[in-house]
Amino acid sequence: MYEFSPLQPIFPNLSPSEEMSVLFARIAALYRAKTIEPSVASSEVFGQDGYGMNDDQFNLDEEEEDEQQEDRKTPTKDVLEDHFKVILERIGEIEKQQQQQSKAFLQLQNDQKKILEKVSEMEKQTKKKVFLKFQENFWNRFACHKDIEISGDKCLIAHLKGNPSGYWHSVFAKYPIVLNKHLSDFFYFEISVMKKKYDWVMFGFAVKQQTKLQGSIHCENGTYAYQSDGNIWINGERKGINAEYSYCIGDIVGIGVNFATRQMIFTKNGLRLNTSDFLVDPSFADGSLYPFVTLWFSGDKIEANFGPNFKFDLATL
Fold first, then answer.
1. Is residue 290 one of the residues assigned to a domain?
2. CDD domains in the record, alphabetically (predicted)?
């Protein structure tokens, strides 16, 4: 009789897709076998050799064919149904294998994606570690207006006290930005606004003048500042107000300079502002500038961040 094992490929020399094609053709032949002459059905379903394949495909020698000659008779209904069942089982097995292969391929794609994301993150972190090397800095009590109180473990908080009014009060950082030049191509720092009465908070870079701790530093040559009303000051000149650039309590704003290109950068809450056209004057590009902050009203209070962990991601530059 015609016995097949559903656990093994019926046509082991064929690929799954080729085997599926043959099996579906065999199913069609089985259906036709129920409506045509048995002798024709025998030839169509089982082929001249009884299996639907030639001698070479099954690699049957002549002796095997002679021994099986007696069994190659017109198939009964039960035989047709048995073959139909075996073929369906084999099709089910192939489909299951294909599903498993598809799942494995999708898993491989997901694994590759995760690996690429991890490599990208490692490259980004490596770039960030190389790029973000900053000289430790802090507010200098000896370059500070008498009404500004410096506090915090690292002397990063500047708080205007007393009852001053009608003029600016400034404090400079201890070290100029040039000290960062041998560590990085860039200098950048941020302030977070803790208290502010009106739009009279300003910070940036300026030529250090300890006698200029009171007054409008932002109007002096060599000053580059970002004011809380949205004004940008470049080398003592106001470049206009942009309401979107204004900042208030809770905002984190930053200013920086690229030593190689002299390009300025201004940020607000981690986003870069559209100020790429602003450059530091060549006469001050050697880094002879100091970070500063200027406060106007009593109670105004900020905290500086000289790096390396900023709200803005410098590695994206």
1. yes
2. SPRY_RanBP_like
